[in-house]
């Protein structure tokens, strides 16, 4: 999960072979387990993403503590740039190299594709055997990574999408903070723009400029802006459960209005930095970290990216608010992101048992708490949420944080990135169209979306024809 997702390699022939014989490939990839060491210990390969926040927890906390409790198991930490994970994972499986525990949403094209390929172990029998406590997770999270009554992933973290704001800039300009309640219909798109105007100064300048807001197509998910305008049917009803669709709908009035508003916030309203200014602010750490942007509609990863600003003497307090109403009655305005741990399918019983021990350890209440405290990443376990809110109590009352943070889940749905098969190929279509649209001062959303709808629907039909028979 991250603000910018990788452009993944497409290898149709190789992926067809993986889809047709995935279970056997996954089994042989780990040599029915693989990874044994000269000492006779079980050696597990744990693939993670390169991350300066998460890696110290993995390296300095998880591995020594787990190996101390399980002296017959050693962990090899394989940390990869997120953009390269898909290629590395495919290469490892093709070369029959050991790979045991990983997250399908880090790199690759998400859980949906890996489930259809047969790469993911059904965890339900392991959960029943160990009397795994499912009640500690936020309601609904386990369902995201289940199919046909089988569980394929255990949630490690979860977060929604929000209006993240710089309280220091609000205070200096004497502007009231946004509301905390997702059902407060006074927080409209018009109010969001009005607030941004009050916070914008010296527009067009990098050094002296201050910008009221910035918006993005969150995680590049096609459905993100239309939801804010109440269009919840970009995808067919069963697409997120099956992973397949034959079409998308994004040329309707609400979808067009949403994308045009996201465009016009720069070129018409002039309260958001231009693409050139955004590039310049990257040298200062990014739009929000630069301290020059007051509000950002973005995925909640901004919470841990910006957490350090709270204790920095030269930093600022952050707040979170609901995403504004683009249209009355638009309830499901948030995109949610939940990352699970999964196990490679087809391991021998010995390596499967060891891998499950690691997954259980990673999502234990003890490690979930340490992960939350070390990284600032929101937990997937409900009993930890009150303590998570206290991390930000210097800036927000815990009860206000709770209202806004949890409201994103009752007012949102999981990202298409995690659930749609071959999302990476769809994402390439969207990027090819979004980039010129958001860079052109006179761009028209209706024209752009007509092309997107046509190209995406054609690609979805190709994917369904190629993958659906293999799944059966």
Helix-strand blueprint:
Elements: H1 12-20, H2 22-29, E1 42-49, H3 55-69, E2 73-80, H4 85-94, E3 101-102, H5 111-117, H6 124-129, H7 141-144, E4 146-147, E5 150-151, E6 154-159, E7 161-166, H8 167-173, H9 189-199, E8 214-215, H10 224-228, H11 239-242, H12 253-267, H13 275-282, E9 295-299, H14 302-311, E10 318-321, E11 334-343, H15 349-362, H16 365-375, H17 385-390, H18 398-410, E12 412-414, H19 416-419, H20 423-439, H21 445-471
Parallel strand pairs: 1-2, 8-9, 11-12
Antiparallel strand pairs: 3-11, 4-5, 6-11, 7-9, 7-10
Helix pairs in contact: 3-16, 20-21
Q: Can you describe this structure?
A:
The structure is a single chain. The protein is an alpha/beta fold and 472 residues long. The chain has a domain at 161-335 and 417-471: D-Maltodextrin-Binding Protein, domain 2. It has helices at 12-20, 22-29, 55-69, 85-94, 111-117, 124-129, 141-144, 167-173, 189-199, 224-228, 239-242, 253-267, 275-282, 302-311, 349-362, 365-375, 385-390, 398-410, 416-419, 423-439, 445-471, and strands at residues 42-49, 73-80, 101-102, 146-147, 150-151, 154-159, 161-166, 214-215, 295-299, 318-321, 334-343, 412-414. The strands form 4 sheets. Strands 3, 6, 11 and 12 form a 4-stranded mixed sheet that branches. Helix 3 (55-69) runs antiparallel to helix 16 (365-375) and helix 20 (423-439) runs antiparallel to helix 21 (445-471).
